[in-house]
Each structure stands twice: as C-alpha cells, then as structure tokens.
Amino acid sequence: MQNKVDILTAIKEVNTSGIKKIKVKGKTSEGEETEEKYIFNVIKHQGDMVLDGNSEYEGATITKTGTEPNITATYQFGDVAQDVATTASNYAQNTVVLKVEGNLTINENVTLTSVANASGFGGPKGMVIYCTGNITNNGTISMTARGAKAVGQNVYLYKNADGNFEYIPAIGGAGAAGQNVSCPGVSGGHGDNGVKPGAVGSRRGTGGGGAGRYIANSYYDHGWQNLSGSAGSGSAGTAFSGGSSGGAYFPGGGLATASAKPNGGAAGTGQTGNANGAGNPSRGTGGLLIMSCSKLEGTGKIESKGSSGTKGTGNSRQFFGGGSGGGSINVFVGEKNYSNELSFDATGGPGNSAGSGGQGAVVVGSIIDGVYSDLDM
C-alpha cells in the first residue's frame, strides 16, 4: 500500500488499470489528523472517449431502453462482483476510478454512472472521473441511487499548499429522529409525529435520511381502538452515501423495525411491505461523485440524488416512508473553466408527506498555484 499526499495526486500518477491501494495522512478542519486507506478500481483509457450509446469501452457495460428515435443509453463503469456490497452482511470495498487520458464526451440521451448491486445493496465507495483534457457533458453524469453500503471515512481529495485539505467528511448530515406515536383508544384519539427531514450536509457532506411518518385516528369497533404506532428514524449520511430513511409501522416491531440502519444500510421497514424508507436495499441513496478536468462544458446534468420512500394505509391510519439523503458532488476544473449551462443536483429524496432526505453538497472549484478556491455557481 503506497503513501500518497492526497487522492487527486495519487490518481494523476496512475499509469495502468487495475486495483490500486493507497493511504493518505490528512487533517480535518477541526485539526484532527487521521490516516485513511483507500482501494481504487482504476479503469484507464488512453485517448479521447465518446459515450454515444454505441461505442464500447473496457470496464463499462451499456444498457439501452426505448425505441428509435427515443433510445437512451447508460454506461455503467466498474466491476459489480468486487466494487459493491453484495449481501446484507458485507460492505462495499472499492472506489471506481475512470481515468481518461484525453477528452471525455457524454452525448445527449446518454448517462455515465457506476455499477450497482442488482439486489439493491448499493454502489461503490464513490466514483472518480479524472480527465486530463476537457469533459463535455450533454447527457447525464449520475450517482443517484448509487450510495455505498459502507462505513464512512474522511476522503482527502486535495492538500493545499498551506497544508489544509479539501475533503469529504466521514459523517454527513444527521438523520431525522423518529418516535413512537401515541393514538389513545378514546373518542377523538389522534397521533401524528409530523414531517421530520434529514439534515443538510455541511461543506462537502452528504445529506441525512428523513424520518418516516405515522398518522392515526382512533375509531370505534366494539370499543375505541388504540392505534399507537412507530415512525422510524433516518440515519446519518456518510462520505459515500446519503443517509437511509425511516419507515412507519403498526404496532409490530416498533421503532427499531421502522428505523433505518447506519452506514448507508437498509431503510426502515414499513407496515406490511408498505411505507418503507429508502436505503440499501430499498431504492437507494445519493452517492459520492468526484470529477477533475481541464474544462467542464455542455448543457447536461450532473446529479447524485436521494430516493423517495413508499406509503400505505390501514383502518384510520396512514403510513409514509421518508426520503434518503442526497449525495456529494465535487468538481475540480481549470481556472473558471466550467459552463453555467450545466445543472447540478444533490437533493434528498422527497418525503411524500414524511421527512425528505437532506440536501447533499455540490462544490465546484479550481486549483491555482497549489491552492483550491470555490467558483461561483
């Protein structure tokens, strides 16, 4: 395992495809020093790359939907067998790195993304698109619903000349708190925990997961019915995933069942398969996207959004799953070299009457004379 100054420097020095292991000793904005280990699955391409829906490239699979003339194509980079979590008991291990020694073009109606587990256990520990030339995006670059089921860690992107780091924090926005909801068995009995969104990710952080929502009104059937239930908590975001969201349950497994698991894990479970939150598995979370290029232009979209939960109903009851947290988008370009015609989106998943996922970060900037600075968006 090689010692490196930061992640962008390490990728700049990579000359071949394959698994690369590095470690970086960095420092947080609070002054805490940590040493972090990273595993990259590098896909290196020499020359220009044009993603047009037909051209094939090593390390990518293409899927197409629709019929002529409205065909859309998606390029998924990475290895689904080794880059992502595959069961409820294991975690994602690798960050997918696409390194293009040349220019990268994404055509209209084409999406560039990473692989994800087919059973819903999420994507890799982020995706890095490192281009020595220009990126022209007229399609979509996406890590929506590609958040990783993985323990968070500080991701040290770049070490400034003054020794400070540009980094994604190990822990993102907080998940919204759930609660047991009382609906007493009396005339006029009512319970509702309200709308509890996940917290916004600070600086480069991901958003937290929203809480579920449980609403009930007591009704009379051989006596007034006690309809107390549970609205589950969302979990905090990590460097690699927006937070998973809570579901809503009556009465059964209670708050623990309805609450999301940490580290981009499973969503909170809802009543009889309804009112689930969003997580891994269950519709996914926003993921980590890192981009570096000389110039970024085009009219397309760059996104890493959270996902919505589901809803259900019962006798005088309504159940709503919350939305998962938005991801983290981090773009490094040459001086002021990006187009404001591009759109960026790291919003959390909608709550649909429950708590929405927290907004994730979108940060675009340039490095001049060894010092990073944000660009106006």
Layout of strands and helices, then pairs:
Elements: E1 2-4, H1 7-12, E2 18-27, E3 33-46, E4 49-51, E5 60-65, E6 72-77, E7 95-101, E8 104-106, E9 110-114, E10 127-131, E11 134-137, E12 140-142, E13 155-159, E14 165-168, E15 179-181, E16 190-192, E17 213-217, E18 229-231, E19 248-249, H2 254-258, E20 288-292, E21 295-297, E22 301-303, E23 311-314, E24 317-320, E25 328-333, E26 343-345, E27 361-368, E28 371-374
Parallel strand pairs: 1-2, 3-7, 4-8, 6-9, 7-10, 8-11, 9-12, 10-20, 11-21, 12-22, 20-25, 22-26, 25-27
Antiparallel strand pairs: 2-3, 5-6, 13-14, 15-18, 16-17, 17-24, 18-19, 23-24, 27-28
How would you describe the overall organization of this protein?
It is a single chain. The chain has a domain at 2-171 and 283-307 and 322-374. By secondary structure, it is mainly β. It has two helices and 28 strands. The strands form six sheets. The protein has a nine-stranded mixed β-sheet with strand order 1-2-3-7-10-20-25-27-28. A six-stranded mixed β-sheet has the order 5-6-9-12-22-26, with no helix packed on it. It has a four-stranded parallel β-sheet with strand order 4-8-11-21, with no helix packed on it. Helices cover 3% and strands 36% of the residues. The two termini are 38 Å apart. The longest helix has 6 residues, at 7-12.
